[in-house]
Amino acid sequence: MDLTLTREQEMLRETVRAFADEVLKPRAAAFDRSREFPLDNYRRCAELGLCGMMVPEAYGGAGFDGVSYVIAIEEVSRACASTGVILSVNNSLFCAPVQRHGSEAQKRKYLVPHARGEKIGAYCLTEPQAGSDAGALRTLAKRQGDRYLLSGSKVFVTNGIAAHTFIVYATLHPKLKHKGICAFIVERGFPGLRQGKPEHKMGITCSGSVEIVLDECEVPAENLIGQEGDGFKIAMATLDGGRIGIAAQAIGIASAALEESLAYSQSREAFGRPIADFQAIQWKLADMATEIDAARLLAYRAAWARDHKERCSLETSMAKLFASEACMRAAKEGVQIHGGYGYINEYTVERLFRDAKITEIYEGTSEVQRLVISKEILRED
Ligand SMILES: Cc1cc2nc3c(=O)[nH]c(=O)nc-3n(C[C@H](O)[C@H](O)[C@H](O)COP(=O)(O)OP(=O)(O)OC[C@H]3O[C@@H](n4cnc5c(N)ncnc54)[C@H](O)[C@@H]3O)c2cc1C
Predict the structure, then answer these.
(1) Is the CB of 123 inside a 6 Å radius of any atom of ligand 1?
(2) In angstroms, rounded to a whole number, what is the distance separating the alpha carbons of residues 38 and 78?
């Protein structure tokens, strides 16, 4: 079994790390404070081909494999976790479903500009009353001639402040449950779409989360992805890919917490010696490093499975669950190693701690990942 990265993957890591250190990291604290959507970060990432990483070159993408995607999102998130999720949503939650389930015309019209990073995509599944239980969504889709009218409200939409295009999930009738759900490509300018209130968040403060309100929003019938009733399957298959992106984001945040802690523990002195001399601190660092490596291997395996297997929910949920919980532990210990300074916002670990928490919540909470995993292993037995 060969666990080494290819020369191309190594080169990608070097390139993205250098870019992230030079461009993203120095701006991250200021964006965290201002909460402004980091549009220039997105443009710079587009120049490197990071917006449509796994999309074939023929459709404007960079044609990378899944492991390369994990590497890039990790490196970006190590510097700026908000930019990490902004990219992950455009890549995994917008480009991937259009590439996998869209018509040729949809790919030409929507995939190409989003994969090139000329446009920003968003994913609208969650509603005020339906998060984990996405099958209970109530946004209605009514067919009227050659268009659909969508009515309802979507919350927590990442990229929503800046997005040009949204994939909106709506139902033909709530009584049909999962079977009634459809996926639509909706442009910001379609009549009846309105941006609601922005969310004020604990972490990833500049990822542009807003409510999106649809009031008989007019969507051409050709913007339905797949067939009527395919939406729930598309949403779930999309989240398999999305979870790999969030695992990578979590690994990036955790790696940053470890780096900050390694540096601080060797410079901070207590009782006449660097705190890194104390075994209590050494063990925290050892646990952080071990869990980050384990998370990375799980994420690589999930990415490989997504590239090569028909079903990969087990691998992607395991990677997301483990990486996000390891990330939270690393961020917590990072603050602890910094003592009182870790609680002060001049120190990077304070932001990392706030950014880490969301990885255990979005694209399926840890409880939901455990549900998916247990269902899969019980199915196999
Ligand atoms: C910053 C941010 C960005 C987001 N971005 C997007 C986005 O771009 N697009 C989008 O569509 N959504 C987005 N979300 C929504 C996110 O995916 C949901 O918040 C998440 O799936 C949880 O749903 P909920 O908040 O409704 O919690 P609920 O589903 O109400 O869950 C509440 C609690 O109950 C638990 N629970 C629920 N059901 C079960 C069960 N069966 N067994 C055990 N425990 C259970 C949950 O794990 C959780 O602990 C975002 C959320 C945030 C906070």
Answers:
(1) yes
(2) 16
Nearest CA to ligand 1 atom 27: 131
Check if 367 has its Cβ closer than 6 Å to any atom of ligand 1.
yes
Distance of CA 249 to the CA centre of its chain: 7
Helix (H) or strand (E) holding 149: strand 147-157
> Which of 88, 166, 206, 362 to probe ligand 1 with, by most ligand atoms within 8 A of CB?
362
Structural domains for the chain? 7-119 (1.10.540.10), 122-229 (2.40.110.10), 239-380 (1.20.140.10)
| Ligand 1 atom at minimum distance from 366 CA | 47
Closest ligand 1 atom to residue 371 Cα is: 42
Ligand 1 touching residue 358 (CB < 6 A) = yes
Place of tokens 């081909």: 49
Residue of 245, 257, 260 lying closest to 359 (CA atoms): 245
Distances (CA, A) of 340 to 249, 327, 344: 26, 20, 7
Cite the active site residues. 363
pLDDT, tens digit only, all 381 positions of the chain:
888 999 999 999 999 999 999 999 999 999 999 999 999 999 999 999 999 999 999 999 999 999 999 999 999 999 999 999 999 999 999 999 999 999 999 999 999 999 999 999 999 999 999 999 999 999 999 999 999 999 999 999 999 999 999 999 999 999 999 999 999 999 999 999 999 989 999 999 999 999 999 999 999 999 999 999 999 999 999 999 999 999 999 999 999 999 999 999 999 999 999 999 999 999 999 999 999 999 999 999 999 999 999 899 999 999 999 999 999 999 999 999 999 999 999 999 999 999 999 999 999 999 999 999 999 999 755
User: Do residues 202 and 357 lie in contact, with contact meaning Cβ atoms separated by under 8 Å?
Assistant: yes
Pairing of strands 165-171, 121-124: parallel
